[in-house]
Design brief:
Largest sheet: 7 strands, mixed
Helix content: 40-55%
CATH superfamily of the largest domain: Vaccinia Virus protein VP39
Structural class: alpha/beta
Order of helices and strands: HHEHEHEHEHHHHHHHEHEHEH
Number of helices: 15
CATH topology of the largest domain: Rossmann fold
Bound molecules: S-adenosylmethionine
Distance between the termini: 52 Å
Strand content: 5-15%
CATH architecture of the largest domain: 3-Layer(aba) Sandwich
Radius of gyration: 21 Å
Strand order of the largest sheet: 3-2-1-4-5-7-6
């Protein structure tokens, strides 16, 4: 699909209800004049909420790798004339790194991972197993490999690996075998063909288990096409370079693979000196760089899930940057 076709999509008529919006607002604790870096701007739902708390004053950096968010970002900028709003159309790893090089120091960073309702509801994007569409799944049209390309080129074993690792799909091997058998005569182009293969490959009772039978395979392909787990790992690393002492980072994830990366990274950064208490001088040199503010993951309440069923799998973790002793002295 050409890049101009992506811009032509009616993104402005599709709405996205920001998940855990009250919780994000409370934990990030933003105020007027702050610098907020939003790594996943999407439809700007969280941005609008945070800008209210900033009373329209301060700086807001809106990053998204999907160029179709541009009209939303422009509308957000127009609605907040007293705020320095900047749009970066690139992935958040790249965005955070270049902001750090420029010397930007963030008071708050938000990552609301995964895809937006806008993307799911644009049939041409091929994210949904519920709508027949080309098997694309790229968030960024500059990325060359689509889901159809992966289905055409990965070996049976590699496909099974993708479905098992990124989709935690129980029938990964059966599905990858069925895909390879079918693609020998006809390559996969449309999502309905893939859904049909999955249905035929899994045992009948599994078709009526939890959720749509193609859900996990679609998730796995989307993660692989967009290299999502690497993005989370590298994004957290880059975000920590950008965060001011006392600044906060909030991450919303939608499946356990992402959440595990966030939880472990936060835990590692929060680990203090590990020397035995009777050692007179620290020998490990380790200092905690983060304080975890949400020891237990934050989940949406039933009212939110009833209103917005897509929020059901969301989970939020928040941490605060700790000033190192040398930084504290200078403050
Ligand atoms: C769940 S939506 C964010 C919704 C947004 N918080 C709101 O309230 O409207 C996720 C967005 O992040 C973007 N995204 C996902 N991974 C990204 C990455 N690695 N770099 C930049 N943007 C990314 C997607 O294109 C999508 O627009």
């Amino acid at each position: 699909m050409s890049q101009s076709a992506w811009f032509a999509m009616p993104a402005n008529v599709i709405t996205h209800d920001p998940v855990l919006a009250n919780e994000v607002a409370a934990w990030l604790d933003v105020s007027p004049g702050m610098t907020v870096v939003d790594g996943t701007f999407g439809a700007g739902g969280h941005a609008t909420r945070l800008a209210e708390l900033m009373q329209g004053r301060g700086a807001y950096v809106a990053i998204d790798r999907d160029p179709s968010v541009e009209p939303r970002a422009r509308a957000f900028r127009a609605a907040h004339p007293d705020m320095a709003v900047r749009l970066m159309k690139r992935d958040f790893v790249d965005g955070f790194r270049s902001l750090a090089v420029e010397g930007v120091a963030a008071d708050a960073i938000l990552l609301d991972l995964g895809i937006s309702s806008m993307q799911i509801d644009q049939p041409e994007r091929g994210f949904s197993y519920a709508i027949d569409a080309p098997l694309d799944m790229r968030m960024d049209p500059r990325v060359e490999i689509t889901a159809a390309d992966l289905l055409a080129t990965l070996s049976e074993r590699e496909l099974a690996d993708v479905f098992a690792r990124f989709g935690e799909e129980r029938y990964a091997r059966q599905i990858s075998r069925a895909i390879c058998r079918r693609r020998a005569s006809r390559p996969y182009e449309r999502s309905a063909d893939l859904v049909d293969t999955i249905r035929r490959a899994i045992p009948t009772p599994a078709q009526f288990g939890s959720g749509h039978p193609a859900k996990r395979v679609f998730q796995a392909l989307r993660i692989a096409v967009n290299d999502e787990l690497t993005m989370v790992e590298q994004g957290l690393e880059a975000a920590l370079q950008l965060l001011k002492p006392g600044g906060r980072i909030a991450v919303i994830s939608f499946h356990s693979l992402e959440d595990r990366i966030v939880k472990e990274r936060f835990r590692r950064e929060a680990a203090p000196c590990s020397c035995p208490p009777d050692l007179p001088v620290c020998g490990c040199g380790r200092q905690a760089t983060l304080r975890v503010l949400t020891p237990r993951v934050v989940r949406p309440g039933t009212a939110e899930v009833d209103r917005n069923p897509r929020s059901a799998s969301s989970r939020l973790r928040v941490a605060e940057r700790i000033a190192q002793p040398s930084q504290q002295e200078g403050r």
